[in-house]
Design a protein that fits this description.
By secondary structure, the chain is of the alpha+beta class. The strands form 4 sheets. Strands 1-3-4-7-6 form a 5-stranded mixed sheet. α1 crosses α7. The N and C termini lie far apart (49 Å).
Length: 279
């Protein structure tokens, strides 16, 4: 995918923040047959709700934010937190938030091999939480801090959330006829819950199937499951419009590899000293 884009580096960015570690979403024990739970709307219904919903507003109070904020995401940055960017389909500078730590590491390696990378320039994979990614991707404008030489105006950039290529491929295989393709797929199996009866929404297909098999071992002779594929942003929009509690008891589950990488990053730290504020 990345080979289709022209790579670009802009330093520094006026709106770049130091990235905070995520509130890690733990792995969850699963149950089949299901505990009492609220049946989720189908992906088609979710898509329709999202289509008729207003655009998400960044930094506003959000019903969905508490559900997704702990998901870890990964960004390829300088040591100061300024993201490396690409030119995407919109022909604008674009920074990527990866749900897959492996994809983020692959992109970091591509940047390290760039012949025009400034001498001594370091490339890091930094971990933050999904809340920051959501606020950036829904903001109407994100200034880069760099002025256009011709117009004198400050250039703007955009952010995109990118799921793993493997999960996007699997989502296409599972897509129902005439269904809208999920840009950031989320996988669910009806009846698969945690100990509190929360319906589980998985960011990784293999984790979804593993959870089903683990739940089935507890006395259920469940057949091969039907895996529903949702689009993440459509889910978030639908959750914002939820008035009848359809999404009240849902739990997003980060991929196992993302959780493990985030834990490693949290233990190692970023190498910067932690100083107390001056008085």
């Amino acid at each position: 995918m990345l080979q289709l884009f022209t790579l670009l580096l802009l330093l520094p960015l006026a709106n770049t923040f130091f990235l905070a570690p995520p509130a890690l979403v733990p792995s969850v024990p699963t149950h089949l047959p299901a505990l009492p739970h609220i049946k989720l709307p189908t992906p088609a219904i979710v898509q329709q709700i999202a289509k008729n919903s207003p655009a998400l507003t960044p930094f506003a109070e959000s019903k969905a934010l508490s559900k997704v904020s702990g998901l870890p995401v990964f960004s390829v940055c300088t040591r100061w937190g300024s993201p490396f960017m690409i030119y995407g389909p919109s022909n604008r500078p674009t920074a990527l938030y990866f749900l897959s730590s492996e994809d983020a590491n692959s992109m970091a390696q591509e940047f390290l091999q760039m012949p025009n990378l400034p001498p001594g320039q370091s490339v890091h994979v930094l971990c933050t939480n999904f809340e920051r990614a959501l606020r950036h991707t829904t903001a109407p404008e994100n200034p880069t801090g760099a002025a256009n030489d011709a117009t004198g105006t400050v250039e703007t950039m955009e952010y995109r959330i990118v799921s793993s290529g493997v999960d996007r491929y699997k989502a296409k295989e599972l897509k129902e006829p005439n269904a809208v393709a999920a840009e950031v797929p989320v996988f669910a199996i009806e009846g698969l819950t945690d100990a509190k009866g929360n319906s589980l929404l998985f960011m990784n297909y293999d984790d979804c199937i593993s959870a089903f098999k683990n739940g089935a071992k507890k006395g259920s002779s469940a057949e091969a499951p039907k895996v529903e594929v949702y689009d993440l942003m459509s889910l978030v929009k639908s959750m914002e419009q939820d008035t009848d509690g359809a999404f009240e008891k849902v739990k997003f589950v980060a991929s196992t590899t993302a959780r493990d990488f985030a834990k490693t990053v949290s233990k190692v730290g970023n190498g910067n000293s932690r100083l107390k504020p001056m008085r």
